[in-house]
Amino acid sequence: MANITEVTTKGYFSRIGDAVKGVVFGLILFLGAFGVIYWNEGSVDISEIANTATKVTAESVDTIAEGKLIAVTGKTVSTEKLGDGMFLKPADYLAVSRNVEMYAWVEKSESKSDTNTGGSETTTTTYSYSTNWTSAPGSSSSFKDAAGHANPEMSIKADTFHVKSAKVGAYEVDMAKLDLPAYSDLNLTKEELELTQGVFENGYVLVGKGTLAAPQVGDLRISYSVVDNNLDGTVFGKLDGGKLVTYIDQKTTESLYRLFDGTFDEAIQTMHSEFTMWLWIFRAIGFLMMWIGLSSLFGPISVVLDVLPILGSISRGAIGLLTFIVSLVLSILAIVVSMLLHSLVAMVVVAVLGIIAFVVVLKMKAKKPVVVQA
Question: Which site among 8, 190, 238, 347 is 20 to 30 Å from 317 CA-CA?
Fold first, then answer.
C-alpha cells in the first residue's frame, strides 16, 4: 500500500498559546519530579526483609517457626498435570503461559517539523503500513488510512494458567497467590499438542489460512512458555499451620510470597538486583520529569523568538543545555535530601555534625586574638 503524507501548518500566535499552556504542564511535571524522587528514595529493599527469614528444611514442617517469615529450599512439586485447555496437552508444569501473535497490519508514522520565517510551523507526517507478527495488533479504526488495512479481532487470546496446589517438601503453597520465577520458552513438539484446529509448524501452532512462510492477515501463531514442575528453588512466605502464605512486614507493610529458581543466597541477590535496577530507573524518570518540566517552563521564549527560526533554534539549544545542568544538580540534591528524610539515623548524624561544626566555629572565633590599635 502507498504511503500517505499529511501536511499541517500552525500559526505563530497559536503556537505561542500552546507554549503558554505548556508552562502549566511543565510546572506540574517539575514539581511532580520531587514527589517521584522522594517516594522512590523511600522504597524498601525487599532483600533486607528476606534476609531475616528463618531458614527451615523442606523435609518436615518446623512448628517453632509458626507465624514467622521462613525460607524453604527444595523442589516445588504438584501432582496435577497442566495444559492450556486448548492445544497444549496436560503435562508436568507448575504454570503455563499461552502466547498469541497475529499477522496484522502495523501503522508507523514519521513527522518532521520546520519553522517558517514569521513563526509559523509546518509539520509533514508520513504514514506507512506493513504486515508483521504482533501480540497487540492495532485497531484499524485508529489508522489514518483504514481502507485496505483491516485487522480482524483475535479469536484466541493470550492467557496464563497454574496448578491449584503444590508443595515445597512438606510445606503447601497457594499457587494462585505465589509469585513465580520467569517463565522459560517451551520448545514445542507435535507430540505435546492436541490439535482440534490449526496445524503445527516449526515450533508454533498456526491457526488461519496461510503458512508461516506465507501468512495472511488474521492468521495466529501460538507458542508457550512454562514454569516446570519439580522446580528446585527457594520459597519465601509466612508459616501458617503447615502452609506458606503471604508475609506482610509490620514495619514497612511490604509483602513477600515468592518462589525463586535457585538457592537462598541467589534469591537474595536477585531481589537486591531488582531493587537497585528500579531505584535507578525511577531516579532517571525523576530527572527526566524535571528536565522536561523546566524546558516547558521556558518554552514560550523559544516560540516567540521563532519569528526568526535561527533565533528560536539557538534559544532551544541554550535552554536545553541550561535546564539539563540545573535538573541534574537539583535531582542529585533531591535524592540526597530524600535519603536523609527517610533515614532517621542519617538525619541524627547530620544534625550532630552540624552542631559540632557550629561549636567549632564559635570556639575559633572566641580564640581569635584581639588586635589593639595604638
Answer: 8
